[in-house]
Amino acid sequence: MPDILTKTDYRYMRLWSFILFAVAVIADAALAQDFLNPAKNPPVIILSAPDNIQKFLKKYLKLPIDPFPDATTEQAFLYRTQKEIRNLLATEGYFSPAISISHSTIDNMTTPEIKVDPGILTRVGEISIIFHGDITQQNEKYEKRIKQIRAAWSLPTHEPFRSADWEQAKAALLSDITQEEFAAASIVSSQAKIDSQQALADLSIVIDSGPVFYFGAIQIEGLERYDQTFITNFAPFKVGDVYRRDTLHLFQIALQKAPQLSTVSVTISPDIARHQAIPVQVAVTEAQSQRFAFGTGYSSNNGGRGEINYRNHNFLDRAWNLTSMLRLEQRRQTFFAGIDTLPDQNNVNYSLGASFQMTDIQNLKTIEQKIGISRNYQTPEIQMQFGLNWLRENKRPEGAINQTNEALTLDWRWRRQVVDDLLHIRRGDVTEFRVGGGSQFLLSDQDFIRFYARQQSWWPVGSRDVFFLRAEIGYTVASSRFGIPQEYLFRAGGIQSIRGYDFKSIGVQEGNAIVGGRAMATATAEYTHWLTSQWGAAAFADIGSAADNWHTMHPFLGYGGGVRWRSPAGPIALDLARSHETGTLRVHFSMAIAF
User: Fold this and answer.
1) What are the residues whose beta carbons fall under 8 Å from the beta carbon of 315, sequence distance 6 or more?
2) Enclosing H/E stretch for 328
3) Which of 54, 115, 345, 369 has its CA at a distance of 20 to 30 angstroms from the CA of residue 170?
4) Architecture of the domain delimited by 42-117
């Protein structure tokens, strides 16, 4: 008769099963720990050295993990490793190391031990930089330049002598000389004389500057649709100008910005025999002349948007740029078409454009038609524009009288931009001035002159952070705001103005709408702390106002914090701002995606 198991027996069986399972798990974990923990597996080689030296050597030395098959293999490895250690330490400035071999017994196994005493760190002693070539001419300019080059030497006396620093200092020295005039300069000889007893390295370098180089003709490869003047007009130099590497760099940047080109290379071959007129070699690949582009985005100022662009970069087969755009936003709808001619050798080009725009912001609806022509001057730092514009605006404020305003205006704009990075600025300034106006004697409904100025400055703080200040001021000189289009008046609020307040919600009350006034001033202080290379947190305060005159202006204050992201297309900000007037919290955000 089979045995019958009681409930108690079942409980004991489950208990013992659990105990056995736990023991098995613990045993497996112990075995795994033994396997993963290298401390329980005796090392094949022991390397003993000061912590910083040991870390350095282990980075470049490959120590065995399997036991040596015989004593001969072990001896060969130890001999070779001692030589490698001496060579490695020499690159770090240790030229008299003491290296010894001994044997230790670990777990009944004899293990070789390499003991390393790096010795005294060698430092830079005397420095001799000797020049030959045209740079040695009796010329005050060259004498001053030689002094500057020697002063800029990056491996000064008493600094640790490391091979990498020595090579980098020589490369920087040569780059300094070839930067301007002496394109074929070379290092004739260089020597580091090591005194092991004094732990000093005396350095000597002989430089031959070669002759002065001058720009010659531009040689172009890759052009098919365009005339060569399309390239030469971008050149920031003339034949016979003294060679400067920065000038070539500016030339390449200007060409890269041209939408007609997809790839650009600007180089010279520093042939001493042709130094009086060195050819500038330009190799390009042309881009497609016509292109459609689509995009979407969102901004707390104007809401969501969709956009379509058509561009023709060879309009009328003259390499002119035809641009047309249809942008539909929740509060603003815009259509624009314009033609830009190519810049000439004086960096001047001309633009002709026309636009149609409808807006519905703060209970003010506008319909604007505009056509204009302008003369533009542009360099990497300066932009200047002088234009003639005619515009007609239908203004419909809720609860007030509708108006139609017309103006024929002359406009002047000047902008200077000096920043370290166009997309992610840490240091720099942007300054802007605008003046524009119209007269009743020349097709305008009102006599007025509008003045506007803005200053933006960035300062780096520490290794990552940035402090930013912005200030703007504007005033329209006129007997009244009536008859003046909104483009020549001022409202405030929103992104790039006063956060904590709706877009253009600060201005003059007209019925139930907010319209532009004749006076405006705003300012911003912002500090951004970058937590990583791409993500940061910001704190800010904005203040300012817009009104019909200075006497009625009341300052509005907004402050808060936000998140910053360095996207590939530029910085994106998400801010939470508080209105000091009402205590209302508002989110300010903008993002655009093109595809």
Assistant:
1) 321, 322, 339
2) strand 320-329
3) 54
4) Roll (3.10)
Look at residue 277 and give its three-state secondary structure: helix
Residue 9 phi, psi dihedral angles, 5° rounding:
-60, -40
**Structural domain boundaries of the chain?**
7-39, 42-117, 123-208, 215-286, 359-594
Residues 123-208: name the CATH superfamily. membrane protein fhac (3.10.20.310)
Location of structure tokens 């795994």: 32
- Class of the CATH domain delimited by 359-594: mainly beta
The reply to whether 42-117 and 215-286 are identical in fold is yes
- Reported as a single tens digit per residue, the pLDDT across 321-367 is 999 999 999 999 999 999 999 888 888 999 999 999 999 999 999 99
Distance of alpha carbon 582 from alpha carbon 379, whole angstroms:
45
Domain 215-286: homologous superfamily in CATH: membrane protein fhac (3.10.20.310)
Quote the pTM value: 0.72
Does residue 411 sit in helix, strand or coil?
A: strand
Asked whether 453 and 433 are in contact (CB, 8 A), the reply is yes
d(CA 67, CA 433): 77
- Rg from Cα positions in the chain: 36
Report helix, strand or coil for 251. Answer: helix
CA distances from 543 to 181, 453, 469 (A): 50, 16, 12
First to last CA, the chain: 83
Give the pLDDT confidence of 78-131 residue by residue, as tens digits.
889 889 998 999 899 898 898 988 887 766 677 888 899 988 999 999 999 999
Answer whether 142's CB lies under 8 Å from 207's CB.
no
